[in-house]
Design a protein that fits this description.
This protein is of the alpha+beta class. It is built from 2 helices and 12 strands; from the N terminus they run H-E-E-E-E-E-E-H-E-E-E-E-E-E. Helices cover 17% and strands 44% of the residues. Strands 2, 4, 6, 7, 9, 10 and 12 form a 7-stranded mixed beta sheet that branches. A hairpin with a 5-residue loop joins strand 9 and strand 10. The radius of gyration is 19 Å and the shape is globular.
Length: 172
């Protein structure tokens, strides 16, 4: 009896851990060569519908320059608040891009699920940068569901791996 109870509790704990551990916001890792542009998606995985997303995207402005930033595939109709040429210019000086995405219509939340693309940023890898990964990190991140309740989420940082031409075969 004691062994079965232990196994049942262990399975229950594991199930609860997996359920809560699946909510995340992640920066994808990509590869590129100096002098080229790379597209870096930010993705969300959630066990509830998502109607609001906020984060700061941190990067090394000495090595990377934002060329463009836009809504991801899953949130094309959402409002991307405050993103314009001036905020991108400021981000390229400071290495910090604030991002706020909201479904003001309250009718098109992201369905619960895995790997939903919510944001896309294109970086230019500056010439002379070589042989080192460039971290792209998240801070001040939050997600809200379609009832405006916080979704507990874990961040997953990414990087731009700077490589030579031969190592990038087949990558855009």
């Amino acid at each position: 009896m004691g062994k079965r109870l232990f196994i049942l509790l262990a399975v229950l704990f594991l199930t609860v851990s997996l359920t809560y551990g699946q909510n995340r916001i992640a920066v994808s890792s990509v590869s590129g060569k100096p002098g080229s542009e790379v597209r870096v998606p930010v993705i969300v995985t959630s066990d509830r519908p998502v109607a609001g997303i906020q984060f700061n995207l941190l990067f090394d402005q000495r090595c990377l320059e934002i060329k463009s930033a836009a809504n991801g595939a899953q949130v094309k109709t959402w409002n991307l608040i405050g993103l314009n040429a001036e905020t991108v210019k400021e981000a390229n000086k400071k290495g910090k891009l604030p991002v706020s995405l909201v479904d003001f219509s309250l009718s098109k939340p992201i369905a619960a699920g895995k790997d939903r693309e919510v944001f896309m940023v294109t970086f230019f890898i500056k010439p002379g940068v070589a042989g080192k990964p460039l971290a792209i990190r998240l801070d001040n991140y939050s997600l809200a569901d379609d009832q405006a309740r916080d979704i507990v989420v874990e961040p997953m940082n990414g990087e731009v791996k700077v490589v030579n031409q031969a190592a990038v075969k087949g990558k855009p």
